[in-house]
Write the structure tokens for this entry.
Amino acid sequence: MTIRVGVVGNRRYTGLTEVLARLHESAPSLKMTLAFETELADTITAGERFDEAANIDVLLTLGGDGTMLRGARLLGARQIPILGVNLGRLGFLTACGGEDFERALGLLATGDYIIEQRMVIETYTSQEPDRKWRALNDVVLHKGGRARVFRIHARVDGELIGAYAADGLIVCTPTGSTAYSLSAGGPVVVPTVESIILTPISPHTLGVRPLVLPPNAEITLHADASPDELMVTVDGQVGANFSPGDTLTVRRADRPTLMIRFRDGSFFARMRRKLGWGGLRERDEE
């Protein structure tokens, strides 16, 4: 059986050209057919092109976490698994690094992997209710101008939970709990524990802490008048302006994102290796 593999890559990574050449060389023996996004046309001339993911079985992302998030956005709600290969430094979301690329392709070809369902949230504003964004990591309401706090009123299922005086508010998935939310002081949530996390950015009070909500909660946010431009950013990549009087709604999306994992790459192993979880690396290696 032939596996149809779509390929997305970040051309800013110096190792991309070499990995693409190795992929093209290995594909026939692994019974894989390759289709490349049009952005890679000047990097590799062989293979087919694809603009939509309807005709692929697996999406291969070559880059870092940002490339994988872009791949997830490209797929939308399509239930196509993503295999992320890290060509950069952190690559927390990816399944392997470039040094393990051939091994990962072999495991993919033989079906020796696990597919994790990762919860996704969707968001829209009251100004454009028909324009919805899916977020694998997070939705952030934040300032685009000067460094000063503003007030965000947050409701959960219609009930007011409080008004945050802060630089912004992060609404994230368990997958996104190890991204911007973690930097802002939010909790680490195991990706399979479905929930929605609210994390304020630099709150101007000691009585405000991150909040973990059930996965079916619907969060609505609106902001007081502010002299600064407000913005909504989705997965750190796309977004829109947000005006006082607008309402931002965030809730669970209908379908998850499917991520490929290998049996020797657990969440806690990635925490220890990539985030230094548990303390000093020298001590942990003893």
Remarks:
- The chain has two domains: 3-118+256-284, 121-252.
